[in-house]
């Protein structure tokens, strides 16, 4: 009975209780961490981060409550051919939602799995998020088949990835990343907002940790995901007046179709072959092969397929939870690493993230030159005088002349020069 009471109390006052528990934990660690190691300022910094991590740890440990009456609600999900979208469609169908699963290929293997595992409530929609006519057709289909249901949520999950150094990557690949990952999210969201206003529902955007941190070799992908995070932030603030909530999912790397090595290798080879002779000779074949090897090592760090449930559970909570978060970073270890990395100075971030780059210099770099570590100054020799920087002082209106005439009257007379 006591356990039941505590669970109810935690559910009703979850955020407050978790913050208090986190603060109590930090207070207990005060003497050991704060005074003996870091001092007064350090304890404030550590207390803030530890209390936040403890809050999230406790939150993840508690059972998540779902909204009632899911049978009268519908959800649109893009990118259901495989991965997160496919698993989410199955999960939401199982708890009673009418699911509209947008798929790039309605005859694909993933679609057959959806048909086998989902109920008759499932609607398959051919949906390429880069094509406005397909998005418009999907909107009309959903609006005409909702019946007595309301559109409760739109999940922007469709996405593509690539890996290449910026100088090798064709412009059309940059455009593709932005067109699918960013503009696809914008296009689908804008199309369904009228229906979401009626239900005061939710928008869920699947971004990535790459939308917070840019790893060398993944710049085009990171650009598109940074833009998704910015879109979600802006949309959330603009939709508050309509009662629509916006939630962002930011997973790390998992073993999904987006991380399969063979397509990434094939694309990388294609980009390299399109490079000019000057670019290829400057980098060299050996550097290219080392980049390819680094890519393989990076993808081997992807979390196994069985861990996808970490992301799907957060997506379910964003769609159907009674107290959804605004931002989800699945897995506690990823939350800790990302917080630590983002809090570092930029120079230190560069040093850490450049560990993913090839360990050898490009061919055109002079062999005798020692490449300086990123944290050391590239300038050698005699010390130079520091650059003088002038602070601009704020000017208040009362100190400013009101008219041009006053400016002329207050101006000092010009000094006359005589030339002999």
UniProtKB/TrEMBL annotation:
N-terminal signal peptide: none
Gene Ontology biological process terms in this record: steroid metabolic process
Protein known as: Uncharacterized protein
Originating species: Daphnia magna
MF-aspect GO terms: oxidoreductase activity
Phylogenetic classification of the source organism: Eukaryota, Metazoa, Ecdysozoa, Arthropoda, Crustacea
Family, similarity comment: Belongs to the short-chain dehydrogenases/reductases (SDR) family.
Alphabetical list of SUPFAM superfamilies matching this protein: NAD(P)-binding Rossmann-fold domains
Origin superkingdom: Eukaryota
Cited InterPro entries: NAD(P)-bd_dom_sf, Sc_DH/Rdtase_CS, SDR_fam
């Amino acid at each position: 009975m006591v356990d039941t009471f505590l669970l109810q109390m935690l559910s009703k006052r979850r955020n407050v209780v978790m913050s208090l528990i986190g603060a109590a934990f930090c207070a207990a660690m005060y003497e050991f961490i704060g005074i003996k190691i870091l001092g007064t300022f350090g304890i404030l910094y550590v207390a803030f981060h530890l209390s936040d991590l403890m809050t999230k740890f406790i939150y993840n440990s508690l059972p998540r409550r779902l909204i009632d009456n899911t049978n009268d609600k519908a959800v649109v999900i893009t990118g259901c051919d495989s991965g997160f979208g496919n698993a989410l469609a199955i999960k939401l169908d199982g708890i009673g939602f009418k699911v509209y699963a947008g798929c790039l290929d309605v005859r694909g293997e993933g679609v057959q799995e959806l048909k086998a595992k989902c109920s008759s409530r499932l609607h398959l929609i051919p949906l390429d998020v880069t094509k406005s006519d397909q998005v418009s057709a999907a909107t009309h289909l959903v609006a005409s088949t909702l019946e007595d249901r309301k559109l409760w949520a739109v999940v922007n999950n469709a996405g593509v990835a690539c890996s290449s150094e910026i100088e090798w990557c064709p412009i059309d690949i940059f455009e593709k990343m932005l067109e699918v990952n960013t503009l696809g999210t914008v296009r689908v969201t804008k199309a369904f907002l009228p229906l979401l206003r009626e239900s005061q529902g939710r928008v869920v955007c699947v971004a990535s940790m790459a939308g917070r941190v840019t790893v060398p070799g993944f710049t085009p992908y990171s650009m598109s995901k940074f833009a998704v995070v910015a879109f979600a932030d802006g949309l959330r603030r603009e939709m508050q007046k309509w009662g629509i909530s916006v939630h962002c999912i930011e997973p790390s790397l998992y073993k999904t179709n987006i991380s399969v090595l063979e397509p990434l290798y094939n694309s990388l080879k294609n980009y390299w072959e399109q490079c000019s002779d000057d670019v290829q000779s400057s980098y060299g074949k050996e550097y290219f092969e080392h980049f390819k090897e680094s890519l393989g090592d990076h993808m081997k760090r992807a979390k196994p397929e069985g861990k996808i449930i970490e992301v799907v559970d957060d997506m379910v909570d964003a769609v159907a939870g009674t107290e959804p978060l605004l931002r989800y970073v699945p897995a506690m270890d990823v939350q800790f690493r990302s917080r630590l990395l983002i809090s570092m100075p930029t120079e230190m971030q560069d040093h850490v993230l450049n560990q993913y780059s090839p360990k050898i210099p490009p061919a055109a770099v002079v062999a005798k030159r020692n490449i300086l570590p990123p944290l050391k100054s590239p300038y050698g020799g005699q010390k130079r005088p520091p650059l003088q920087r002038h602070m601009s002082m704020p000017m208040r209106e009362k100190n400013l002349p009101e008219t041009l005439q006053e400016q002329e009257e207050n101006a000092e007379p010009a000094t006359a020069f005589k030339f002999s």
